[in-house]
Design a protein that fits this description.
By secondary structure, this protein is of the alpha/beta class. The strands form 3 sheets. Strands 2-1-6-5-7 form a 5-stranded parallel beta sheet. It has a two-stranded antiparallel sheet with strand order 3-4. It has a two-stranded antiparallel sheet with strand order 8-9. It folds into 2 domains: about 160 residues, Alpha/beta knot (3-Layer(aba) Sandwich); about 55 residues, Trp Operon Repressor, Chain A (Orthogonal Bundle). The longest helix has 16 residues. The radius of gyration is 21 Å and the shape is elongated. Helix content is about 30%, strand content about 15%. Bound molecules: adenine.
Length: about 230
């Protein structure tokens, strides 16, 4: 899989690309490229943003700058790219990232992540240049870079070779195997610590009972009965 990130801070992604599971996915043949809007802006002095029409604080990433960056990177008009690659604008008001969306994106051959800064994008970026608008949560970050990293992590860990044990990505929280519910709790040694004991069933050696216990725990968490409070 090929992921391109358009950003004002491409250097942030050097560290990120060296971390697992990203590094594993890259070693297994995927590509992650971070490019700066400034390298492609047609405006003088590396300008990429402007003040909002109608007034108000902050700066808005310009539609012509994003358009020019996409055209330079891919050698064709952004609208011609639709259907060939998902162009995902990261914005607090977008579709909420969940496991289903991460799986959907992991099935793509190539995606482009557009990070905004300041007050975000000129809305025409989202309306016309992007194929998707994605949010990692209903809060506002200083920019889309961390959101792009979250999307990359959630997507790339699903790729073959990204995790040490490929079963980890199959039976995990919110996966279809668990019916979309959170994962069951895990324990390791010591079996008893400060009087806090591991559930007997897990050290019983009865695989069928362990499977049933885990399924019940996962279902209970999914119905809001587990730690971390109620789910919607
Ligand atoms: N950019 C700023 N905040 C964001 C969020 N919550 N999700 C995605 N992109 C963002």
């Amino acid at each position: 899989m090929e992921i391109d990130v358009l950003t004002l801070f491409p250097e942030w992604f050097s560290w990120f690309a060296a971390q697992r599971p990203i590094a594993n996915a890259l070693a297994a043949g995927s590509a992650l490229r971070a490019v700066s809007y400034r390298d492609y802006t047609p405006l003088a002095g590396g300008q990429v943003d402007d003040t909002p029409f109608g007034g108000g604080p902050g700066m808005v990433l310009r539609v012509d700058v994003v358009d020019a960056a996409l055209r330079s990177l891919y050698g064709r008009d952004a609208l011609e790219l639709h259907g060939q690659r998902r162009i995902v604008a990261l914005t607090p008001s977008g579709r909420l990232l969940d496991d289903a969306l991460a799986s959907e994106l992991a099935g793509e051959r190539a995606i482009t992540l557009l990070s905004g800064r300041y007050e975000g994008f000129d809305e025409r970026v989202i309306d016309h240049l992007a194929t998707d608008a994605v949010s990692i949560g209903r809060y506002v970050l200083a920019g889309g870079e961390l959101a792009a990293m979250v999307v990359c992590d959630a997507v790339m860990r699903k790729l073959p070779g990204a995790l040490g044990d490929c079963r980890s990505a199959i039976e995990e929280s919110f996966s279809p195997v668990l019916g979309g519910a959170p994962e069951y709790p895990h324990y390791t040694r010591p079996a008893s610590y400060r009087g806090w004991s591991v559930p007997d069933v897990l050290v019983s050696g009865h695989h069928e009972q362990i499977r049933a216990w885990r399924a019940a725990q996962s279902a209970q968490r999914g119905s809001g009965g587990g730690p971390g409070g109620s789910l919607p």
